[in-house]
């Protein structure tokens, strides 16, 4: 399992780009310690903007639902405190990290690095050849099921957490190592896909032939 706790993060938003003025409408942050969720921060968010019709159709979150939700200024400060110094994990992490940084900057919270591990990038290296690396597609490949509605923050965060644990467990079994450093997994997501298996073997100090560089690291279901 993971050698240190991580925070699995998912935002629902009014659109795809904070640079275009899009804002957060819901947040789920789950702290994973080992293989268990030990703490969480879950809330709808009132960012003072209207939710477009396509956003409500996708997520089910409406203007009426967020009317009495805490403001974004309160939520983002609580979220930053909750994350602390832990690694942030998200699927398509550039999206969630972009909104995290943008909302934090609105409140004058700048300079925090928010080290981030992307489960989409990790899946590309450990599950080569999938037709899609959307969260639902990776979850299906790994036998992970939704217990709530997709495109709601908590349901997506729990699925991302389960995907992460499946990937980590498979590496740990193959490499005969009980613990994996989130920092090593972050490095893995930056390595070229063709070199990922070889570099992972070298980083964990295992024989290079233990994993073929052209084959998936993760076993079948």
3D architecture notes:
By secondary structure, the protein is an alpha/beta fold. The chain has a 5-stranded mixed beta sheet with strand order 3-2-1-4-5, sandwiched between helices. The chain contains 9 helices and 5 strands, in the order βββαααβαβααααα. The protein is 42% helix and 15% strand. It is globular, with a radius of gyration of 18 Å.
Can I get a quick summary?
Helix content is 42%, strand content 15%. The chain is an alpha/beta fold and 221 residues long. It has one domain: Ribonuclease H-like superfamily/Ribonuclease H (Nucleotidyltransferase, domain 5), CATH 3.30.420.
Class per helix and strand makeup: alpha/beta
Largest sheet: 5 strands, mixed
Give the averaged pLDDT, no decimals.
91
Q: Can you tell me the residue ranges where pLDDT is under 50 for at least 5 consecutive residues?
A: 207-215
Q: Can you tell me the overall shape?
A: globular
Relevant terms:
221 residues; alpha/beta; Nucleotidyltransferase, domain 5; 42% helix; globular
SSE order and pairing:
Blueprint: E1 6-13, E2 24-33, E3 36-44, H1 53-59, H2 63-66, H3 72-83, E4 87-90, H4 93-106, E5 116-118, H5 119-126, H6 135-142, H7 153-175, H8 182-190, H9 196-203
Parallel strand pairs: 1-4, 4-5
Antiparallel strand pairs: 1-2, 2-3
């Amino acid at each position: 399992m993971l050698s240190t706790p991580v925070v699995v993060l998912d935002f629902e938003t009014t659109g795809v780009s904070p640079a275009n003025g899009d804002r957060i409408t819901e947040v789920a942050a789950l702290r994973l310690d080992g293989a268990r969720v030990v703490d969480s921060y879950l809330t709808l968010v009132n960012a003072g903007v209207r939710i477009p019709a396509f956003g409500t159709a996708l997520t089910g979150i409406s203007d009426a639902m967020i009317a009495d939700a805490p403001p974004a200024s309160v939520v983002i400060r609580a979220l930053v405190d909750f994350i602390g110094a832990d690694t942030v994990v998200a699927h398509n992490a550039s999206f969630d990290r972009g909104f995290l940084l943008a909302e934090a900057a609105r409140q004058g919270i700048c300079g925090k690095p928010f080290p981030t591990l992307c489960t989409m990038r990790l899946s590309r290296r450990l599950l080569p050849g999938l037709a899609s690396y959307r969260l639902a597609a990776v979850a299906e490949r790994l036998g992970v099921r939704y217990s709530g509605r997709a495109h709601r923050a908590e349901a997506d965060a729990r699925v991302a957490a389960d995907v992460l644990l499946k990937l980590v467990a498979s590496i740990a079994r193959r490499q005969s190592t009980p613990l994996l450093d989130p920092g090593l997994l972050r490095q893995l997501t930056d390595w070229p896909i063709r070199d990922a298996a070889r570099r992972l073997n070298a980083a964990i100090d295992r024989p290079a032939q233990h994993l073929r560089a052209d084959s998936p690291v993760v076993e079948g279901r």
